[in-house]
Amino acid sequence: MAASVYCSGKLLRTFARNSQSRTVNTLFLRCASSSQKQKSTSKGATSKAAGRNIVLVEGVRTPFLMAGTNYADLLSHDIQRGALEGLVTRTGISKDAVDHIVIGTVIQEVKTSNIAREAALGAGFSDKTPCHTVTMACISSNQAITSAVGLIASGQCDTVIAGGVEFMSDVPIRLSRPLRKTLLSLNKAKSLGARLGLLSKIRPKFLSPELPAVAEFSTGETMGHSGDRLAAAFGISRKEQDEYALRSHTLAHQAASAGKLEDVVPYKVPGHNVTVTADNGIRVSTMEQMAKLKPAFVKPHGSVTAANASFLTDGASACLIMSEDKALEMGYKPKAYLRDFVYVSQDPKDQLLLGPAYSTPKVLDKAGLKLQDIDVFEYHEAFAGQILANLKAMDSDWFAQNYMGRTSKVGVPPMEKLNTWGGSLSIGHPFGATGVRLVTTTANRLLKEGGQFGLVAACAAGGLGHAMVVERYSS
């Protein structure tokens, strides 16, 4: 079916008409060859950062599990507590030495509205340690990290824990608004007659619950539908999406088997005689098996399926961020410097998932770097079609000139540098926790591979995006 069927937005319709006919596979070949280009002379510019150097000492996460599995009977603060405890065990940091804790989350449990505080208290941190919770859709723990950076850069703190959590096994379900209003009025009624009068107004339709909507509030469109339209507009086939998803699962399986996913810490599930030690969503399939799945959102002609989309995931993450001088004073050797970062926002209808395409060139410009200076790329994979659409946008002079105010395209990451330990499609995507995983994986890959600079980028609901430059610690 033609791309225009899905392209209700002007940008997507126009791109579909103007984009070149090259396939994504051809793009992959060009990406691979680009890594042979000589490094830019700007490399190393961000190593001379003004002000305090801020470092990532360590990052951990609980195993990321498919919703409805081993974590199903818990609450989100239970999982976040596990990540905090795992970080303390891994680093040996004294809980009294932590100045502040910032946690990101998206779908909040109403009983623990400040999840950072409840998880910290549960993990044994002092009740004198301030904690706050942030939310920014799928980049919530990215925001937690940069909030920590701000606290340290301003001199308010020296040592901050940033993290994130999402618990999709038991999301809050509300009573309908008419029933809520009636029950609230019932609670205030002062006589039996008044209570009976209110009860008599309840109608059967009041009993229908309100389920959380995995959709844009401003557009009413699910992210999956947006992903389908985006893939169609950029001319990305179902086969290309399945190939990318298979790549993600294969690389994640290889990384896990080789012990590279060292950010995972064991988690003993409360109330159960089980300790979870590994992610359970990594499943290497075949193209033939994947081709049998039906479209998940746009039926029957869509291309996004359960196989090439990230799955609903439970999990939590945490990382220790410090000023460099404080880290060295306490005897730590940091993993990486946290350098420049940007946030971007676009039209949530037409450009919902294009955050990486917009944020990548902006953060490179801010850091004084070029694409070829980056040794490690970690991009969030919401959908295979989404990541491939971002690569096509980044490789388009037309897109750069018409929508980014740039004279030419930024280019695309070489595939041998992009998400080589798997990504959100395979490892999982607990909305509020993924950002810490991306930054920690970037630092770990830089150390393993001997690179200097890494770049993290992600999209988020609301048309938001984030990118950050990470530099391997070398002192």
TrEMBL record:
Enzyme Commission code(s) on record: 2.3.1.155, 2.3.1.16
Domain of life of the organism encoding this protein: Eukaryota
Keyword Plastid appears in the UniProt entry: no
Pathway assigned in UniProt: Lipid metabolism; fatty acid beta-oxidation
Subcellular location: Endoplasmic reticulum; Mitochondrion inner membrane; Mitochondrion outer membrane
Alphabetized InterPro entries for the sequence: Thiolase, Thiolase-like, Thiolase_acyl_enz_int_AS, Thiolase_AS, Thiolase_C, Thiolase_CS, Thiolase_N
SUPFAM superfamilies cross-referenced by the UniProt entry: Thiolase-like
Ranges of residues in domain Thiolase C-terminal: 332-472
Pfam families: Thiolase_C, Thiolase_N
UniProt domain Thiolase N-terminal: residue ranges: 54-325
GO molecular function, one term: acetyl-CoA C-acyltransferase activity
Catalytic reactions on record: dodecanoyl-CoA + acetyl-CoA = 3-oxotetradecanoyl-CoA + CoA; tetradecanoyl-CoA + acetyl-CoA = 3-oxohexadecanoyl-CoA + CoA; decanoyl-CoA + acetyl-CoA = 3-oxododecanoyl-CoA + CoA; octanoyl-CoA + acetyl-CoA = 3-oxodecanoyl-CoA + CoA
Keywords for this protein: Acetylation, Acyltransferase, Endoplasmic reticulum, Fatty acid metabolism, Lipid metabolism, Membrane, Mitochondrion, Mitochondrion inner membrane, Mitochondrion outer membrane, Transferase, Transit peptide
Keyword Transcription: no
GO biological process entries: fatty acid beta-oxidation
Homology family: Belongs to the thiolase-like superfamily. Thiolase family.
Function per UniProt: Mitochondrial trifunctional enzyme catalyzes the last three of the four reactions of the mitochondrial beta-oxidation pathway. The mitochondrial beta-oxidation pathway is the major energy-producing process in tissues and is performed through four consecutive reactions breaking down fatty acids into acetyl-CoA. Among the enzymes involved in this pathway, the trifunctional enzyme exhibits specificity for long-chain fatty acids.
Record note on quaternary structure: Heterotetramer of 2 alpha/HADHA and 2 beta/HADHB subunits; forms the mitochondrial trifunctional enzyme. Also purified as higher order heterooligomers including a 4 alpha/HADHA and 4 beta/HADHB heterooligomer which physiological significance remains unclear. The mitochondrial trifunctional enzyme interacts with MTLN. Interacts with RSAD2/viperin.
Protein name from the UniProt record: Trifunctional enzyme subunit beta, mitochondrial
Organism: Stylophora pistillata (Smooth cauliflower coral)
